[in-house]
Amino acid sequence: MLFDLAFIWAGLIAFAVLVYVILDGFDLGIGILFPFGRSEKERDLMMNSVAPVWDGNETWLILGGGGLFAVFPLAYAVVMPALYMPIILMLLALIFRGVSFEYRWRTRRWKGVWDMAFFGGSFVAAFCQGIALGALVQGIEVEGRAYAGGWFDWLTPFSVLTGFAVAVGYALLGATWLVLKTEGELHIRMRRFAWYLGAATLGLIGLVSLITPFLEPVYFERWFNLPGSLWSMVVPLLMLGLAWSFFTGLNDGKDLQPFLSALGFFIVSFIGIGISFYPMMVPPSLTIWEAAAPDASLAFALVGAVILVPIILAYTAYAYWVFRGKLDPSEGYH
Known about the structure:
Layout: H1 5-33, H2 40-48, H3 54-57, H4 59-71, H5 73-82, H6 84-103, H7 111-138, H8 157-181, H9 184-211, H10 217-224, H11 228-232, H12 234-251, H13 256-277, E1 280-282, E2 286-287, H14 288-291, H15 295-322
Antiparallel strand pairs: 1-2
Helix pairs in contact: 1-4, 1-7, 1-8, 4-5, 6-7, 7-8, 8-9, 8-13, 9-12, 9-13, 12-13
């Protein structure tokens, strides 16, 4: 049947990945924009804007990766050797970034070093996430239920393009988050940055979207064969609506609207990836059901997910509610 355990778990992992991207995306974006803080006070303000939530955002990455290992072991066994290098670099960057987040408050002599570490860790993590996405979209060679490609198959012009696109998109989320959370000169500058980053993000999304259908025949059929393409055309229409909302929000001096619209760019792009992928777990050949663990394992793990996911959602929502509103420059969270 359609809504079986493997399908439900694929939806849960996709949900965890999407929530990670939209939550940790602006967090990483703050790090990417960090060198553009013109003073130590501005950089402190930028970091304090995410201080209460940054580590909780990464819970969703653990849920997505751990869930893949537990319920889609074959997909995990194929994807990890195929993307070993960008994934390890991403994890090391996230660790180093987390250390710099804590240490920069406890030193004066080395604060500049930890500032650069915060920027470098954020950029490398975002770039590697984009490279991993691009490598997955362009397809992973599978033979005999195992990865059959080379060490550097993940490194292609397309994966570098998607890596750059994700980094620019995260910077956009970071800029719109600062528009939402700050006032004064930093707010004005980030509003200007958001305009240019929004245009660049939309351009990169368009370029990646034009290339993707030609990477695999199944992608082309999903997007350009009738009547299925009638449904897929909703994606660019939604993107046009979000682009209008984004730029009008910036031009009208709105604070929340540009941030929500920028999040919408990622959500609609994620829907587009889902249209291209489904029912494949590892393109172009490994489906959700082929990659899934036995039903008994899926059912056992689902019990834990049903309990834990609402709890994670609740404390995440509570944290954002407690620290809502503009950030007072005279009061920090560190």
